[in-house]
Amino acid sequence: MSFGSRNRARKYIYNVRRDVYNEENFQREHKRRPSSVNVDIHITTVRHRVQCRCSWRKFRRIVLMLFPFLNWVCVYRLRDWLLGDVLAGLNVGLIQIPQGLAIALLTRLLIPPLNVFYSTFCCSMLYVIFGTSHHVSVGSFFLVSALMAPVLQGIMFNSGNLLVGNFTKVNFTDPEFMQNYNQALSMMATLTFLTGAIQLLLGFFCLGFITKYLSETIMNAYLAATALHMMVSQLCYIFGFVIHFHTGPLAFFYNMLDYCIGLPKANSTSILLFLICLVTLRVNKCIKISFKGYPIEFPMEFILIHLSAETSKTVIEMIPSSFLNPAVPDMTLLNSVIVNAFSLAIVSYFLLIFVGRRFASFHNYNINCNQELIAIGLCNILSAFFQSFVFTCAIARTVIQEKSGGRQQFAALIGAVLMLLLVLKFDYLFYELPNAVLAGIILSNVLPLLGSVLDLPSLWKQDVYDFMIWIVTFVAVICLGLDIGLAVAMMFTFFIISVRSHRTKILILGQIPDTNIYRSFTDYKEVTHIPGLKIFQCCSSISFVNIGNFKRILLREVDLKALPLAEEEMRDLFYETESNSNSSRDFKCGCNCEEPEPPPRISFTERLKNRSQTDSSSSINLVHCSRYESGTPSWPRSESHTPGPGNLPLPRSSRAPVPQKEEVERIWIPSSQSGLTSEETPSDNQAFNSHDSKCVSKGTQEYSEDSYMPNIHTIILDFSMVHFVDLQASKTLRQICNAFHNIDVLVLISGCHPSVVRSFERNDFFDSGISKAQLFLSLHDAVLFAVARRYSKISEVSLEESSEIVQETYPEEEQVRHPYSSKGPGTGERRMQQRIIG
């Protein structure tokens, strides 16, 4: 059912009649469930039995978690998906063969082709069983494999020609050369094995959640930069000459410079073949084929791959065609490759996750990050025994598999079987492979990854922070490479998250007239200010990062500043509090049966002062010290906070008349005197001194004239958007509340989530300056209580005596107009009844 214009235009009315609740009263009247964090376990018997209950549902869930391929095998639509998976498998299987041969030319890691193909087949089978992505095709990716080349730089034999490729099969007949070649392959196998072991351990410890901190913006930027790296690497196929492929920082620009220098040696046939392939694939994208409602693209790659060219003959002549038997990696080399292995483990995993999440969002399914970590780790461990490359997501093959109509990993299964069959039975067909066509196929399929560049203008308008993350990630990956660029992108992302959490947005709220709705003054024009109240809304959680900014904004809006106490004042106050607490004990137990009382704490170490005042008088009497007790404060005795008779409605606007006292009594302390004086009469001073001990016992504090603030009597903090308050933030927040309490400004907190209240209880947040009775369930409850206290007939109202203070009632008349409307006759008037229960 749609939410039509009729429902939007209709007015709905609700009537409310209830007591104003604070957290203390609400918990007293409604039983709260015990927290699941602090559960006391009482053992009442000696013998206990552990019952292991197993059901078919639990067993099935465990099996599906261990073997994710059963999720799609059991629901596979044979008639709908089979044709698309077969066509996708044919394309992927044919592309794997020239890519496996060409990767040796790019990376200069001359691994026998049969080892690459066998490892690709076995790893594809493993990922089909343990992987959760429906479209990812695993294999060797040349940019990740190129990161393995620096490990071999320490093994310089044959004048370093292993990394340059200036040798042929004749060199492999030399026993010394073959021994060094096997040593290099052993180093690569150890590196691949350690990479897989690291990924497997990270998966077992469920550390795949780290990818959840990487947004779609960083994923798009990383894939766009990777696609640009891929395009640059294919230029050697397009121009028909080979360069020394650089890796590491600024390798992108070094490779571009080498291509520009070698342009006079470009092969016109390869360039023409590349252009023909590119145009053909572009036209093929315009051909739309659907089978039973599922889009399928014509397998043009299957036809183009059979075009003949002479560019692959050099590669096959360089690599030994004999198959090297699987071998156990040399574990003695683990210490020398651990840094490179960790870098490869992170890069290969994140590349797999980025591509998998991209296609998962396209087809509306989810992938398990931890399971993907385990799957790719198993693939790399198996690849190490074949002395092959580090495996990850093959981006070009994944795109081909998805756009050819592949729906599940059955397409990857067909492609792996087809590749192995062609290599073993029809290897002579691939002696001359069109590398220029292969470059055209790769460029045509990775070009859509650069589409996020066109979205930058809209990204700038939507979110500047995401725009900055995209730019930094893209530039870092282009300039520094896949590994260092990824680290820079992650660090910058966490920095942006910290900045956004530090720059907490705090709004000043006002009341919408004749409603219980409160909005920001910057958003709505009709918002009105309630005299004597300041309402602050914190729009994020509070932690040690942003509590300083929260305090600064709060003091700035009330035109106050915090001045730290002198060290002598703090020391004297601490000793005085300690001596008073010891002398007040009437009975002391000589044994150690009682728990030791914690040392006294200073509620706050700063005093609040008006910004316009410049007097730096002593503030020893402005500090309130208390022990860890659940004391309940009583409200200040100043009559300026309790003017006029009660039974007054809630003010509708700032223009509403506010009752004023004819005489306002201020108690102030001169900086040069320790006694108390009054501005009115000596009798007032004597009366105050006679009740001094009672006032101190109730928690009422003296305040000086420069810190007296008659315009604001209550500050309300709306914590409805706060999810947590950490330990350091709760300490600072308690000091802020005590500082305002010391200058006769009441601080109320509204809308606290139960988890926040529990954290306050665990962190010992409540004391004599801020109690649980000052926490209200809603913002309107806090406002009603503050106004009722302001206009109460009784000057001193304790929170413990106010279980029922304000009741808000509305007439139950059936009206077409909103009962809160103040226009026209027949409008329901709001009546606020104040009742003080003694």
TrEMBL record:
InterPro entries: SLC26A/SulP_dom, SLC26A/SulP_fam, STAS_dom, STAS_dom_sf. One of its GO terms (biological process) is transmembrane transport. It comes from the Eukaryota. The chain crosses the membrane at residues 59-78, 110-130, 142-164, 184-210, 222-246, 266-283, 333-354, 374-398, 410-431, 437-456, 468-497. It comes from Ornithorhynchus anatinus. Residues 670-690 have a biased composition (Polar residues). It is a multi-pass membrane protein. PROSITE patterns: STAS. Residues 600-619, 631-696, 808-838 are annotated as: Disordered. This is STAS domain-containing protein. Keywords: Membrane, Transmembrane, Transmembrane helix. PANTHER family: SULFATE TRANSPORTER (PTHR11814). Residues 523-786 form the STAS domain. GO terms for cellular component: membrane. Its main location: membrane. It is found in: Membrane. SUPFAM superfamilies: SpoIIaa-like. The keyword Transmembrane applies.
